[in-house]
Amino acid sequence: MRLSSGAALPLVALLYALTGYAEPPPRQPAQPPADLPPGVSPALWKLVVPASAAPTPEKVALGQKLFNDKRLSVDDTVSCATCHDENFGFSDGKPVSEGVKGQKVTRNSPTVLNAMFNASQFWDGRASTLEDQAKLPILNPREMGMPDEAAVVAKVKAIPEYQAEFRKVFNRDVNYDDLAAAIGAFERTLYSGNARFDRFIQGDSKALTDSERRGWALFNGKGRCNTCHAGNAVNPLFSDQKFHNIGIAAHKQDFVKMAREALKIVRTGDEKQIDELALETDFSELGRFLVTKQENDIGAFKTPTLRNIGITGPYMHDGSLATLWDVMDHYNKGGVSNPYLDGGMQRLGLTEPEIDDLVAFLYTLTDERFTKLNQKFLTQQRARKNQRPERDTAVAMGKKGNLGDLAPNPDLNVKNPAELGVYGTELSVKPAPAKKP
């Protein structure tokens, strides 16, 4: 990793590594807003927001209007907010999203909360910036359905209010790049880092219950969650920003045959075709492979953020897991075996009380502005706790199969990992009482 000359802070260097950037981009950062929540580092903000993309009030207002305007779709029925609804944590609550004429795509709609911090966008990372991400759904036939950029510009230009607003904000007529820049500016205001977990990690020992603290310890220990979902003050997403095959769709796809077929038809560098393959065909299940054409990326998808995970289900790239109990069952048995399964996937051996504690912890990652929604979804998921299609206790406990040894389970009476606060400092909290056998 190369650092710029002068007074380069170690924290900034760490931020570049954690967010997937190889080196500081040659630009001046924007100044972070004064109201950043505790879970969002000002240093990280400056890292990812160049001055040229600073979310000024005028640009944000225009972007928010465009984000919510169904007239950007071919039949005036779908907007960005259709699939990124604030009432669902800026996702849509559906297994896979629906666009114009009720057409379904093949992937689940990820939240745009904290998308500004992503090293790449979409489940397969096919877009590198918020602006690139904003452009593609408008043109995808199954999403917003506009035929091309020129048609979008012509439609927006024909709306008098937009003519005036684009001139006011950008000092020129409507164009597609500026439209995406405005939407990107609005999305840069959708940061989230004010969860109960953030209060806990900042030193509020009463912010988490005993069950939630046990879940945090399991998250960092026996559950192995922090292998891909590490979270701390300088990495607020709880994501390693990498791509992994965890076997979600392996049981219904022949990845090898599909990859060979895909290589014959994928045109290198054609972003529009990759977008259509990802959302309209069975090739969607190849994931990152569609972008890189590398065999080790077959079936690999980006590690999603765990921020607001309680309100952004159903889960995984295809929305196939309805509850966080289903998610834990999937990981507990080591995923679904396939030739490209990530090497980190192995059984966890979690007991039912441990799964309950982990789920309880995950619900502490929801921003407190969504507290009522978080409780509503927790109640709904808990009601489905006995419907467990992914559960395989025999495999998880090592009674059948051969999926590796278990991670160490920390003795919470000696040292609870949940008591490590910001940058590893100690919190003034008492050890959690040992659970009765």
TrEMBL record:
Q: Does the keyword Mitochondrion apply?
A: no
| Compartment annotation | Cell envelope
Q: Does the keyword Oxidoreductase apply?
A: yes
Coiled-coil annotated spans: none
Recorded GO cellular component terms are: cell envelope
| Entry-linked InterPro entries | Cyt_c-like_dom (IPR009056), Cyt_c-like_dom_sf (IPR036909), Cytochrome_c_Peroxidase/MauG (IPR051395), Di-haem_cyt_c_peroxidsae (IPR004852)
Where does the signal sequence lie?
A: 1-22
Question: Domain Cytochrome c, which positions?
Answer: 58-160, 210-366
- Residues of the region (Disordered) are 380-417
> GO molecular function of the protein, one example?
cytochrome-c peroxidase activity
Q: Which domain of life is it from?
A: Bacteria
Q: Return any one Pfam family short name.
A: CCP_MauG
Keywords, A to Z?
A: Heme, Iron, Metal-binding, Oxidoreductase, Peroxidase, Signal
Q: Where would you say this protein principally sits, based on its record? A: other
> What is the name of the protein in this document?
Cytochrome-c peroxidase
